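for the writeup, i need someone to sanity check this before i put it in the appendix. the sequnce is what the collaborator sent (i think, or maybe the updated version? ugh). structure was predicted straight from it, no edits. if anything looks off just tell me and ill rerun, i have time this weekend
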Amino acid sequence: MSTMVPNRRSSFGMRCVQCGNELTAPEWSEYRSKQENRHLWRCWKCDCCFETIAKMEDNALRDEISPLPLVA
């Protein structure tokens, strides 16, 4: 398994580092700090497994984002 910093800025998913298949969501995510999240990706097509680290800038307004209320 390898760790990489993603160079693709997409609002949706990631591409597999081995076959290029579009992945829609990480298999697992870990909140490490206010500035860093780690994601584990697994490609269903070629079974490649890799990690990415998402780094937030210090001035990001992340704490001001609130979740939407659930409506039944």
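The first strand starts at residue 2 and ends at 4. The chain has a mean pLDDT of 77.
thx in advance!!
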